[in-house]
Inverse folding.
């Protein structure tokens, strides 16, 4: 589902974040990228999500090249990063409605209710995101990332800010996602 061939990313200052990486990630598998700070993990995820261009090499994510098929790629991937991509002045429900509308999610109201339940925020649909703790925002960010039922889920340190219960909920969500044959790549 994801393949990289001789992938490189070198920044203008000469720093090489990814050097000659060739790897494949298969559907139904959870893959973890490990390494020290500055090892290039986030850079790699950003390239796979089409947020950053590689310097050279081949990249294929679910049949799409992130360099040229960005719009189509966004339809099939979900991304959870350090930045939640949530609107602080909107409620949890309104944030998910915004993203669900962008993806033309059918039966959106029901889908939002199910997702809020899944991530443990069913009691807070009308609360503004700016009142949420970091862990609650991380939970909502996960719901945002999967609202369109993506084929691939990229997670950049998804456990950041989650308490023990939140971490267990995330683990269960990832198991369900994997069992549906989806690809998960996480840092």
């Amino acid at each position: 589902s994801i393949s990289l061939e001789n992938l490189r990313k070198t920044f203008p200052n000469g720093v090489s974040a990814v050097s000659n990486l060739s790897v494949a990630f298969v559907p139904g598998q959870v893959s973890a990228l490990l390494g020290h700070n500055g090892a290039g993990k986030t850079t790699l995820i950003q390239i796979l999500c089409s947020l950053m261009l590689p310097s050279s090499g081949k990249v294929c994510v679910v049949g799409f090249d992130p360099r040229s098929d960005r719009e189509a790629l966004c339809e099939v991937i979900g991304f959870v990063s350090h930045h939640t991509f949530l609107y602080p002045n909107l409620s949890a429900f309104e944030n998910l409605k915004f993203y669900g509308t962008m993806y033309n999610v059918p039966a959106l109201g029901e889908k939002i209710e199910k997702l809020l339940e899944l991530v443990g925020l069913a009691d807070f649909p009308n609360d503004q995101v700016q009142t949420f703790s970091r862990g609650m925002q991380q939970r909502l960010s996960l719901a945002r990332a999967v609202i369109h039922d993506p084929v691939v889920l990229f997670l950049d340190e998804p456990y950041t800010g989650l308490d023990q219960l939140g971490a267990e909920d995330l683990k269960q969500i990832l198991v369900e996602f994997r069992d549906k044959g989806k690809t998960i790549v996480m840092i």
About this structure: The longest strand covers residues 16-25. The first helix runs from residue 41 to 48. The CA atoms of residues 33 and 187 lie 5 Å apart. The chain has a mean pLDDT of 94.
